[in-house]
């Protein structure tokens, strides 16, 4: 059970930390309550070409956990083949991610839903486009989250280094002005022998409540 009853933007301490796992758990939980819910994956880098077009695994997982059937292009408006940073994946196919357009598409998709989960890509400050000049601030996924104005859920992949990554992520979210909805610990490495110690340390150190814990379950 994840103790949340409002829409969230889901970010994480890294890629591969359980964001999609947690997002689908939340969607299934809300769908079981009879709510009209769906997940969005605004930007996906890493996709397979199918007869229907490019498809990303996260977006398909979100679709299968939703109670509202949305067209694929609504769930995942920006789908790029290469599994790399979004702006590099876009550049590899001669595209540039239009953050303003992405924001309007996400707002329109969210409007009719009771609740939604919007899954980021990678971590909080993943760039979406090149900066206008070297060293200048580039648009990031955090800007998209700020535009959507959703509280942010941080998925912490429980492994060595996660305390630092979680603290850095939450500090950056706080400085964006968005509310922190809380964090969920997701056990992604069953061989890590500090799971219980880290659960305690995260609970003590993080400036937001733990709203769920996902044990290892292959
Ligand atoms: N609690 C867990 N137990 C077992 N496997 C997990 C768990 N959480 C995540 N995984 C697996 O780890 C991989 C990364 O998880 P995922 O949710 O896709 O991460 P992210 O969305 O942050 O990239 C996936 O293969 C997923 O099935
Ligand atoms: Mg994911």
Question: Care to describe what's here?
Answer:
This protein has 218 residues and is of the alpha/beta class. It has one domain (8-214): P-loop containing nucleotide triphosphate hydrolases (Rossmann fold, 3-Layer(aba) Sandwich), CATH 3.40.50.300. The chain is built from eight helices and ten strands. 42% of the residues are buried. It has helices at residues 19-32, 57-65, 72-75, 86-92, 99-110, 141-148, 162-176, 195-205; strands at 8-12, 37-40, 43-45, 48-50, 53-55, 78-80, 115-119, 152-157, 180-186, 210-214. α7 packs parallel to α8. A six-stranded parallel β-sheet has the order 2-7-1-8-9-10, sandwiched between helices. The chain has a two-stranded parallel ribbon with strand order 3-6. Bound molecules: adenosine-5'-diphosphate (ADP) and magnesium ion. Residues 12, 15-21, 58, 186-188, 214, 216-218 line the site of adenosine-5'-diphosphate. Magnesium ion binds at residues 19-20, 58, 119.
Element pattern in H and E = EHEEEEHHEHHEHEHEHE
Give the distance, in angstroms, between the N- and C-terminal Cα atoms: 18 Å
User: For this structure, what is the CATH homologous superfamily?
Assistant: P-loop containing nucleotide triphosphate hydrolases
* Biggest β-sheet: strands ordered side by side in the sheet: 2-7-1-8-9-10
- Bound ligands: adenosine-5'-diphosphate, magnesium ion
Class by alpha and beta content: alpha/beta
Q: What is the fold-level CATH name, i.e. the topology?
A: Rossmann fold
Shape-level CATH architecture: 3-Layer(aba) Sandwich
Low-confidence stretches: none
The first-level CATH class name: Alpha Beta
């Amino acid at each position: 059970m994840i103790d949340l009853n409002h829409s969230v933007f889901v970010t994480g301490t890294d890629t591969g930390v359980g964001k999609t796992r947690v997002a689908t758990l939340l969607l299934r939980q809300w769908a079981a309550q009879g709510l009209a819910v769906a997940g969005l994956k605004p930007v996906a880098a890493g996709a397979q070409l199918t007869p229907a077009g490019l498809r990303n695994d996260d977006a398909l997982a979100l679709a299968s956990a939703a109670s509202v059937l949305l067209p694929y292009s609504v769930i995942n408006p920006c789908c790029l083949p290469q599994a790399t940073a979004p702006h590099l994946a876009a550049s590899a196919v001669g595209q540039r991610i239009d953050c303003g357009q992405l924001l309007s598409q996400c707002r329109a998709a969210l409007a009719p839903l009771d609740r939604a989960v919007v899954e980021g890509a990678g971590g909080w400050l993943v760039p979406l486009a090149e900066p206008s000049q070297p060293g200048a601030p580039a648009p990031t996924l955090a800007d998209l989250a700020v535009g959507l104005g959703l509280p942010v859920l941080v998925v912490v992949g429980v492994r060595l280094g996660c305390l630092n990554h979680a603290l850095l992520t939450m500090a950056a979210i706080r400085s964006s002005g968005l509310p922190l909805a809380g964090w969920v610990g997701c056990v992604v490495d069953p061989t890590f022998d500090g799971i219980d110690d880290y659960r305690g340390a995260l609970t003590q150190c993080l400036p937001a409540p733990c709203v769920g814990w996902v044990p290892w379950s292959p």
